[in-house]
Amino acid sequence: MRQYWGPHAEFGILRVADDQTYWYGYAAMPERTVLDDELGAARERFAGWAAPVHEVLAATAPDVVMRHDVHQLPGGLRRYTTGRVVMIGDAAHGTLPTMGQGAATALEDGPCVGLLVGAPVAAGGRLAPALDGFDAARRPRCRALARSSVASGRFGSHPGGGWQQSVRNSLMRLTPTSAVLRGSHAAMGWTPPQPASPTY
Predict the structure, then answer these.
(1) DSSP for 43-58?
(2) What's the pLDDT tens digit per position in 65-97?
């Protein structure tokens, strides 16, 4: 994956097959903006960016472009469970897309529900303690990732041009690769929990 940061925006390119590329453009604009030509707007917004950005946009057919408003759930929910209800995915921890962890954490929620709620309840355990265990396991990680996504946006794609961009770019050049890899591992180094023991 290649990622490009510019003033108030970012652009990512990911080859998913020999003949298929996924790209995204993330830019600030008023909520519910209606664009008659999504692809034309993207080409205009990212004019002057690196050559690979222009090449991908030039090779894109207008009918495959999808635009989505970005929403976050600042701070997340106080709890991911209430009564017999479990909130997962964006409903519980909607986050900015600046780290690519929104769908990833939603996918993590699935096995956690099974291992931390389903397994102990299937073994005859009470539901309430199982739900408490799910909440205690998921909320700290998801909140930390949401905070990191906000910080990543403030540093990466949200600064304006000029001196802000120059300072950001200089800091990126000075950041050791090992520090970047440590940060990536914190986000992507997740392993599923062990099945919870039932509480009777």
Answers:
(1) HHHTTTS-HHHHHHHH
(2) 998 888 888 778 999 999 999 999 999 998 888
pLDDT score, position 37: 95
Q: What share of the chain is helix, strand, coil (3-state, %, to 5)?
A: 50, 15, 35
CA 76 to each of CA 5, 72, 149, 153: distance values in angstroms, whole numbers, following the listed order: 26, 8, 13, 17
Find all residues with CB under 8 Å of 59, minimum gap 6, and list them: 21
Residue type, 18: D
Model confidence at 55, pLDDT cuts 50, 70, 90, reads very high
* DSSP, res 193: P
Going from N- to C-terminal start, the domains of the chain cover 2-64, 81-188
